[in-house]
């Protein structure tokens, strides 16, 4: 395993919210990170769809870890802002957030996450997040 991937996996393992959601870390490569969760009743909203808060959380973390994957050791990442468009109800066998860096900078990084609901071998886009991430010194491997 590459050092950057190892660093991201170790950080992800320390995230209490991701553990609470039952989210799992999938693909990790430079500038790209995937996070998935399996829907369950305690993650739903009143209509039975996965709650927007859970969708937003995995999208934010996927974008943040994508940004972290391009930052040097010794730096961490914090979300400074994000906007999410909820395009369709999050319902399916699995909800997958695919984070990707749009433009990496020394201090600020622009990233996106596309969130898909997978069901029956098909994936449907349910949300799109755009975020600005800030590199911080002395917080290695921590993503918020």
Task: Describe the protein's architecture and organization.
With 144 residues, the protein is an alpha+beta fold. The chain has a single domain (3-137), classed as Hotdog Thioesterase (Thiol Ester Dehydrase, Chain A). It contains three helices and six strands; from the N terminus they run ααββαββββ. Strand 1 (24-29) and strand 2 (32-37) form a beta hairpin. The mean pLDDT is 95.
Instruction: Give the H and E element order.
Output: HHEEHEEEE
Query: Which CATH first-tier class would you pick?
Result: Alpha Beta
Helix % is 10-25%
CATH superfamily: Hotdog Thioesterase
CA distance, first residue to last residue: 23 Å
At CATH level 2, the architecture is Roll
Return Rg in Å.
14 Å
Tell me the strand order in the biggest sheet.
1-2-4-5-6-3
Number of domains: 1
Q: Report the sheet-strand fraction.
A: 35-45%
- Tell me about the biggest sheet? 6 strands, antiparallel
């Amino acid at each position: 395993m590459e050092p950057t991937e190892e660093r991201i996996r170790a950080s992800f393992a320390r995230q209490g919210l991701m553990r609470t959601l039952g989210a799992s870390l999938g693909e990790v490569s430079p500038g790209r990170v995937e996070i998935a969760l399996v829907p369950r009743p305690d993650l739903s909203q009143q209509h039975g769809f996965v709650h927007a808060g859970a969708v937003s959380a995995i999208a934010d973390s996927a974008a943040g870890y994508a940004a972290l994957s391009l930052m040097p050791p010794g730096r961490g990442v914090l979300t400074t802002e994000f906007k999410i468009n909820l395009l369709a109800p999050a319902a399916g066998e699995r909800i997958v957030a695919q984070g990707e860096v749009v433009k990496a900078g020394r201090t600020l990084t622009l990233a996106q996450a596309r969130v898909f609901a997978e069901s029956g071998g098909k994936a449907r886009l349910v949300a799109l997040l755009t975020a600005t991430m800030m590199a911080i010194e002395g917080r290695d491997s921590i993503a918020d």
